[in-house]
Amino acid sequence: MDTHRTATRALATEAVHAGRDDLARQGLHAPPIDLSTTYPSYDSRAEAARIDAFAATGAELDGPPVYGRLGNPTVARFETALARLEGTEASVAFASGMAALSAVLLARASTGLRHVVAVRPLYGCSDHLLTAGLLGSEVTWTDPAGIADALRADTGLVMVESPANPTLAEVDLRAVAHACGSVPLLVDNTFATPVLQRPVEQGARIVLHSATKYLGGHGDVMAGVVACDEEFAGLLRQVRFATGGVLHPLAGYLLLRGLSTLPVRVRAASATAAELARRLAADPRVARVHYPRIGGAMVSFETHGDPHAVIAGVRLITPAVSLGSVDTLIQHPASISHRIVDADDRRGAGVSDRLLRMSVGLEDVDDLWADLDRALTEAGVPAQAVPSAR
């Protein structure tokens, strides 16, 4: 697969064509799904040489596949496409976003660099993985201004999420990258997607996605992916081979299909989210609204009434975890996605007990507003001067 294209194509064009450049030459239009777990080979000496090469560098195997844990052609198409969208040399896909983050931590630790500097808030399970030290990592939590002072000789990674889950707080990625010096900056770009920002253009060296979310886009695939340079990608492939956190080929196919509509979905949902954020901000039943400067399809807000009653009151919107689907979801982070984070740390990061996080989908804005309006009323605060739905 040709990952290293020199010609510049627009993001919308890359979303449709990246990872598919060889199809016409094969007489194909839709990408094939290769479900094989193993592949025949009659030259075991040559296979031994290829396995040795992989063990040395983690480079993608030259020639036909060997075994599903070493790589899969369908998954490789998605990896090629995502790398092109993020503007990196390579990307490596995993069975989930947490598997992807775990691989990054293990890869850095394998070089003796176990210390991580991180900025809250992060996704709750990312926070827990770092805090609990389950993979032998040690974390120092700081704000963006304190990153440079928090670095140590054994710091292998600085991690931020912008916009952050669930407060949608943003950081100046270029300033953070400068503060990191020679330490790689990892940016969780799940909420923004490459449609709204490409962190490597601002100095990040590693970009993480829970591909379950916007990259898949339809709530029917679980995956994670890391976009980075080829050297680090080789190390990640070795970790993936050793730990087995591989992405299923059907998931790779669905993700490649999801990328083709990513720009359209993100921009349409973002327009609706911005309008809902405007209406919520003008609503006296809402105490505070969080919406990022770069836009996006995520809105968080704090209610004067009972947030649990809002969750119970929606009918069109689905009360569920996750995000990035074509339908709108709402959840209470303090109860679910960030429940595993210590309560004081959670509140200190701005995740209040009244905060609700909404992932806006592709429904009509007035239908969504009508559902929210009813749920807010049922939450116990009378509607006064509620903005009219246009």
Would you count the extended β strands for me? 12
Strand content: 5-15%
User: What's the architecture of the largest domain, going by CATH?
Assistant: 3-Layer(aba) Sandwich
CATH class type of the largest domain: Alpha Beta
- Output the number of helix runs: 14
CATH topology of the largest domain: Aspartate Aminotransferase, domain 2
Biggest sheet architecture: 7 strands, mixed
Structural write-up:
This protein has 2 domains: 11-260, Aspartate Aminotransferase, domain 2 (3-Layer(aba) Sandwich), CATH 3.40.640; 263-378, Aspartate Aminotransferase, domain 1. By secondary structure, the chain is of the alpha/beta class. It is built from 14 helices and 12 strands. It has helices at residues 11-17, 44-57, 73-86, 97-109, 124-132, 147-150, 173-180, 193-196, 230-243, 249-260, 262-281, 307-313, 343-348, 365-378, and strands at 90-94, 115-119, 138-142, 155-161, 185-188, 206-210, 224-228, 286-290, 298-303, 318-319, 329-331, 355-359. The protein is globular and about 75 Å long. Helix 7 links the parallel strand 4 and strand 5.
Short note summarizing the structure:
With 390 residues, the protein is an alpha/beta fold. It is built from 14 helices and twelve strands. The protein has helices spanning 11-17, 44-57, 73-86, 97-109, 124-132, 147-150, 173-180, 193-196, 230-243, 249-260, 262-281, 307-313, 343-348, 365-378, and strands at 90-94, 115-119, 138-142, 155-161, 185-188, 206-210, 224-228, 286-290, 298-303, 318-319, 329-331, 355-359.
